[in-house]
Every structure is written in structure tokens, then in C-alpha cells.
């Protein structure tokens, strides 16, 4: 299970590659502007870029050039000036001194380095902070990512090769000041699946399908994309469809009432989340260090759990909401864990 | 709808069969017509045959001016007006070009003495084009080849309305769908209004991305009857999506990835005074000039959207024959020059001009370089480059001179030429001079003063040093569908990061600098 979470987002079926890839981190899909036919093609392009086009323009005819002619060629251009400066919008795209983590975030939050509102992004943002990596964050969209999903990291200029989420763990071990070790236990995979399935599905359901959180969904994903109401509507529709398909993929939340058409049964989703949270709380109760699996310092798994518990408490703390479930799980172990991670990740000011 | 439409006159209109050709007309009547064009004349009836599906209201616009009686009309006036009406009918584009026949006959069957005024019967014979046309083929545009299928529904409601549906795929256009409904305004074939919807996906390898576009537009285009200048005003609303970045995409491109809506008004003007007819080859103008201008206002005030700017482009080109002493006829040698410039100025979204504004995005900025503009550079080879990506600029100027020489033995009458050229240009981006919020995130905004300061410095940067230049020699084949060029060129002056091209370069296009 962990492999699937961490591994490359290479789709196996051609019918829904984009969807799987798009929403896997609990983030919105890459809204395709309703271009259904491009989904399969797009993912193929991501992996096999049109190098041929590039090559044909960058490598012209190669045949042996006589020496004098070569010398003549080499003397051109006669004058070379300094490079033309980049446009104004290029300035914030990277930094000369620190790497940039591209995440879903509001501009104000990004300026402060505050936690991202996307579970996948927050997990890595937290982990990099826990590992002592110095970086800044930049608000972005899935379209900008080399894998089709945020986050990814751009090292400081001049190196502009993006580091996808799948390689961030290695990156943190190399560049962090205090990289945490990963606990080696067989149970890790089993517990990872609690994050990947019940918790993630509950988050998707609450944010995307529950009409009560429409304004939150708009603030997070559709409003930053465009100021236009009709583009926002189109994107929201795509996001909801993708989220629903994603939840249904697990296959265990079909509503009994709906024969023939697949409808997500919200109650089942939340019940699954409650059980998962209880299991995590019980697991945490076994630990003497306050971190999962008895680790000395918080690990990637702690960051993964925190990403959900923090967002659920922060944004869905209402009556019967997911935040309440987090706080009520076990004897409040998860709530305590959430506070400890905030402290450890130097987000002391956050609640 | 009646098979024959008739106008004017106070007598009943004859049937279709009553007009069978000029030879049927009384020869003496014809003689009277052509004897004296200054003789007073009126129109008795006008008939149109063969316009089965065409609406009467459309034809009214064309024939009303013909039959409106002016008291002192002469025969010459009438014949001129008949010519105008025929030309309008033809330009509607719904009748077969080779089907036009006009019959003019004296209304009085038996000439009784010297007439006060000549009364004329006028009959037009036309054949409507088929109402549905399907086509498929290949197309060559500037630096791109494509294949398309096309369906055209003509004269849908009988008012010369045309619906065109088009699907294409090409070397750069991954897919494009387009539907346009156009119709003449008030029956005037020189003014057309069009509604258009489009969706396309285009690969832009020079900046490592693909752009998807969904949008619609309303356009009114008109041509000045007296001098042929053409104008158009377009309102368009386009959802652009920058996506599918290549792995090596630069931070600038990554920063602009995603969605944006552009709402804009565009005015464009073309004055084409190139003389194509007097030279040996119609596709190689011998003399004259061409002016093109385009001006776009996006996002400002009521327009809204995600981008706000004004964008202006101007293109001039001229060519003249080079007389060689001792050669009698036109030598076929021409010298030409071209100049293009453009400026993109960020505007606030609010009304007025004082509000803060966002710097331009890559899909709005200009690109310069390539075989059809500044030869000797790669596509988008000029201007600022980030990590190999041509990220475009907000101000540019480019110019070139060329000389076309007929090929010895092949001669001036062939569309082949040898070309000598030198061209260059400069593409500069607007920088944010006021060192604003560097550091964590955020798309920076600029104050109106910062923009005008930066724009002044960008414009002055155009003349900073020599422009990036290249010169070379090549072969030109001016086919009616497109112009093909094979050039050998060397860059003379470049900026670091700009992609000049040493050696051979192939150019295919319609509109060259």
C-alpha cells in the first residue's frame, strides 16, 4: 500500500489514468476544461514529451563540416550581448537562495509559510519542516506539476529540475538538518492504508461532495483558478465528479438506495473514518514517545496523519464534523499528536 | 419561396420562360440602349431567376437601390446600378460564380416613335451553390501544417447565412474544433457579422507547454468598397489553460500554468496595396505596400476576466522593382522591406487607469523569431529565455530587408527566386523595477507608476545595442497556397539565451516579414 502511495503515479488503465493521478493527494484533479479525449493523451505526453519536436528544431543537419567552414561558422555571431532579463512574473517563480515547494495555498498563507490546505501538500510541507529543510512555498496548481499533482519542489536557481513528491523523502534525507528515520515495521503498510482510504475518502466527501463546504471548496480550489463564475462552475463540477469517482473506486460506500447508479453513502464514509481514527488513536496510545510506532522523532507517517487531523480540526470543526471525530478519537491522543506536530514543525502560532 | 423574385414595375411580371437570352431581344431596342447612355431611362421590372432558397428580404437590400426611381436617371446610371447589384449578388457567396447572366430588354414590345424615357426590363439568372459542402484537405499556415475536415452549410435561413464547422489537427495544433455562423449585415456583402465558438489544444514546444483554449467570439468585419481597406471588430471570451508541461519546463512557465479567462475587444485593420497583377508572378508582388494594425483591450473595467492589458501591433511592408540599366522589361528583381512592432501594456481591472495591475502572462506576451519573422532564429528564438524556454516579451520591434532575384535560365516568370536578406529584432519584457515582495509567494502586482516607469525602460532597452540580427541567402518558391523558403543564414548579433540558427532553415508560411 505504501508503494502505491509513494510510488510513481503511473496509471495502469487507460480509461481513467488522469483521474487517479489527479486526485490522489486529496487535491483537485487537473481540470481539463471538459476535454475528455485529452485525458489519456495528456498523461502519455507527461511521460513521453514531444522530444522529437524539440530535437528536430535543436539539432539541425549534421554532416562533416570542412575545417575552414567550421572556423567561419564559429566566428558567428559576431556580437553577443548579455541576456535579456526575465518578465516581472518570473521573479517569484523561484528563488536564488532557497528551494521552492509548489503547493496549494492562498497567497497570504504562502507568504507566511503557513500550512497548506491540501492534505497531500501539507504532509510533505510538514515533513520537510520536521526534517529541517529550509524552503519557501509558492501557491500553484496541478497543471504546473511534472507529475500532474502537487506538491513538487524546485531547487534554488540555476537548477530548475523539479523534484516530484515521490522523491521528496530522499531529498529531505539529503538536505535536511535533522532527517527522521523511517520506522521499519510490517504494520506501517497496514496503517498507511488507513490514511489512503478511509481518512482520505472522508476528507474528499466532506470537502467536495458535502454542500455545506461548497464555499470552502471554492476558496481552496476554484477561486484561485479564475475570477470568472463560469470557469469556477465548470471546475467545481469537474472536481466533484472526480472526487466522487475517486471515492467510489474503493467500492465499499455504495448507497443501498441507489440501484443501478453508483451513489456515495456519506454515512458509511464517515463511519469508516471514525473507525480509522479510533485505530490510529489506539496505535498512538501504545507508543511511549508520543510519535507513531515509538519513534524518537516524528516521521513521515506522523506528517501524514497530521495532514488530515490538522485540516479536519481547522476547517471542519463544526457539530458532527470530522474535526470533532479527531478530537473525540480514543482519549484525545490524536488531538495531542496534532499539537505536538505543530510544535515540532515550528508552527507554534497555529492552532 | 418563389423561384423568381421581381421588383418594381407596374405591370405583371412575366414567367421564367419569357427570357431566353440576349439574342431574343429586339435588336433595335438593344441599339437604343447602347446608342446613348445619357438618354433618360427607368426600370420597368427586375427579375431574379434561380434564387430558390434565398429570402426576399435579403434581395430587397440589393434590388431596392436599383429600382428606386431617381428622376434624372440615364441609361448609363441604370447600367452601372445593374452592375453594382450583380457584383453584390456575387459577393454574397451563395451563387455560383459562372452562373451569372443579366438580361436587359426594352419594356415596350413595339417601339412607337421616339420614346421620352426608355423603360427597361432587367432579368438576372443565377444558380445557387449547393447548400451543403463537405471538404477535407491539408493546410499550411505560418510555421505549421495541418489537416482538416470541414462542413459548410450555406444560405441556411435564406439570408446568405453560412455555418462552418471545422475540425483540424496539425503539426502543432493537437486538435481544434471550430464552428462559425456568419451573415451579411443588412444584405451588404461587404459587412459580415459572425458568431464563432472554438476549442483547441496547441503544443508550444518553444516554451515547454500545451495550451488548451475554449471560447467564443462575435465579430463584425467590413471592407471599404472604395479602397479595399478591411476592418474588423471582435469581442471574444476565451478560457485558456496552460497544461501538460514538459519535464524541463522553466519556473516561469510553471508559474503561469493553469487557467485564465481573457475577455477582450480587438480592432484590426489591413490596407493591402501590393500590386500583384503587373508583375510576372501574382504571388510575388512587384511594388506597393501593406499595412496591418491590431489593437486589443482586455480585462479592463466592464470586460473583467483574469488578465487586463492593452496590446497593439503594427506591421508595414513594402516592395519595389529594381530597374537595371540596359534591361528593357521589368527585370523581376525586387527589393523589399518590412517592419513590425508591438506593445503590451498592463491595465488595472477597475475603471480608470490608476489601479494596481498584474504583469503579463506568457500566453499574452509576444514571441519573436522563426522562419517567418526574424529568419535565422528558432521559433520564439528572440527575447528573454528562462532555462531554454522562450518566455516572451511585452515590447518588440523587428525589421528586415530583402532582395529577390530571378534564377538565371529559369526566368522571372517562374515563382522561384533567390533571396538575399538581413533581418533583426528585439523583444524585451517588462520588469518589476520596484523591488517589491521578493521571498514567499504571491503574484506580484505593480502600481501604475511602476508600470509606466518599467515600460519606459523596456522601450528604451529596444535600442540598447544592436538588435539581434541574422543575414543569409536562400531560395523562395511562391506557391499560391503558401510561400516556401529554404535559407542559409548566420546570426550576426544575439543576446545570451537567444536561439540563433547557423545554417539551413526551412520556412513555410503566408505572412513573412
TrEMBL record, chain A:
Region of interest: Disordered: 1-60
Biased composition, class Low complexity, residue ranges: 9-19
Location of the Metaxin glutathione S-transferase domain: 273-313
Domain Thioredoxin-like fold: 119-212
One cellular-component annotation, GO: SAM complex
Biological-process GO terms, alphabetical: mitochondrion organization
Bias kind Polar residues: ranges: 41-60
Domain of life: Eukaryota
UniProt protein name: Thioredoxin-like fold domain-containing protein
UniProt organism field: Cercophora newfieldiana
Lineage: Eukaryota, Fungi, Dikarya, Ascomycota, Pezizomycotina
TrEMBL record, chain B:
Residue ranges of every copy of the Bacterial surface antigen (D15) domain listed in the record: 155-512
One GO BP annotation of this record: protein insertion into mitochondrial outer membrane
Locations listed in the record: Mitochondrion outer membrane
GO CC list: mitochondrial outer membrane
Keywords, ordered alphabetically: Membrane, Transmembrane, Transmembrane beta strand
Domain of life: Eukaryota
InterPro entries per the UniProt record, alphabetical: Bac_surfAg_D15 (IPR000184), D15-like (IPR039910)
Name the record gives this protein: Mitochondrial outer membrane beta-barrel protein
